[in-house]
Amino acid sequence: MNIETRKNEGIKMSLIGIFINFILFVAKLSVGIMANSIAMKADAINNLSDFASAIILLISFYISSRPADQEHPFGHARFEYIASTIVSMIIVFIGFQLGSSSLGKINNPEIVKTDIFFYIVFILSIIVKSYLYYRYKKESKKLDSPILMATAKDSFSDIISTAGLFVSILFGQFFNKAVDGYIGFLISIFIVYTGISILFKTSNRLLGVKADSKLRNEIKQFIRDHDGIYGVHDLIIHDYGVQNYFASVHVEVNAADDIKVSHELIDHIEREVAFKFHINIVLHMDPIDLHDDKKDQIQSELVAILEQIDSHISMHDFRILADGDQNKIIFDLKVRDGCKLSNQEIRQKITEEAHQIAPQYTCYMDIDRNYEVDIAKVPFKQDIKKK
């Protein structure tokens, strides 16, 4: 779905929310004043806050769809995360307000006077809010919109709140006992929890979270399937908002191939990834020697050693370099979640084991752990002499 279509769909849902919540606010406030019902008036104020949330939703789709500019080179799509945070804070505020008024009702219970219009408004409110919840949730999945999902959860909390108040008022009418304060307080806890859960989720997106593993695997496999690519690693995906991703990845190519040919291949893959996954990606070439028996032997032995040390550690970017009179082994280690060894322990173990198979080489290794790279030189001979 292109950005313009997504914006128009989002604006349509915003206008539906604005219209419905305003009508509910006017209807509930009118009935609440006529029936002198604090519960109905409070529910009307809740719909007024939903009306404000729908306006925020409208503004969000306008701003987040704006193209990149000089001050915001990665676009404005992250504004949707900010708007979701605002909506979540409104939900939390409404929850605390309901909790406060419910405590007041517990201390001063009162049977609510009702009439037929009172019940009609309550029932219609639940039906309409259920429709809004269904539409918001459906469109949030279709548009991959965090703020629409937040608004859907807000509508669901409204359904629970209104239904709870309706049941408590019915209970009071039939059994002459006011329980709306207790039910309202329980509902307020649920609403606050909903708001906080949305706040944490959107805050994580703003801070930056690991990309979906399925997407990562699909991209790596897609690149790996191209002739001339012998390995893919260090894929990093940056989330700058819905449908606005930037990525970088290292790919291994044959060092013996013409650099122009390899460069053309890289450019071709970048364009294909952008078209297929809608991700702006930069590929970094790592040339590897495919016909060095000595390198292959040392690499295979080190891989076996790594498997014995910890299965959560893998190796890539392995190469041997002759620098003057110094021979170097250079490689990167990827440490996945689950490895309990520290970087220092990993270095020490590899140093001790690798010295047995390659005492004449100086080893340089970079350790990648959740995108934090620990770069250090590990000279085998010097470490062994210090012991």
Entry summary:
The protein is built from eleven helices and seven strands. It is α/β, with parallel strands linked by helices and 387 residues long.
Descriptive overview:
It is built from eleven helices and seven strands. It is α/β, with parallel strands linked by helices. The chain folds into three domains: 3-207, Cation efflux protein transmembrane domain (Alpha-lytic protease prodomain-like, Up-down Bundle), CATH 1.20.1510; 213-288, Cation efflux protein, cytoplasmic domain (Alpha-Beta Plaits, 2-Layer Sandwich); 293-386, Alpha-Beta Plaits. It has a four-stranded mixed sheet with strand order 4-5-6-7. The radius of gyration is 30 Å and the shape is elongated. The termini are far apart.
Q: What oligomeric state do these chains adopt? A: single chain
* Estimated structural class: alpha/beta
Average pLDDT, rounded to a whole number, is: 84
Gross CATH architecture of the largest domain = Up-down Bundle
Strand content: 15-25%
Helix and strand arrangement:
Blueprint: H1 3-35, H2 38-64, H3 79-107, H4 116-143, H5 146-175, H6 180-207, H7 213-224, E1 231-239, E2 245-254, H8 259-277, E3 279-288, H9 293-309, E4 313-323, E5 326-335, H10 343-357, E6 362-369, E7 372-378, H11 380-386
Parallel strand pairs: 2-3, 5-6
Antiparallel strand pairs: 1-2, 4-5, 6-7
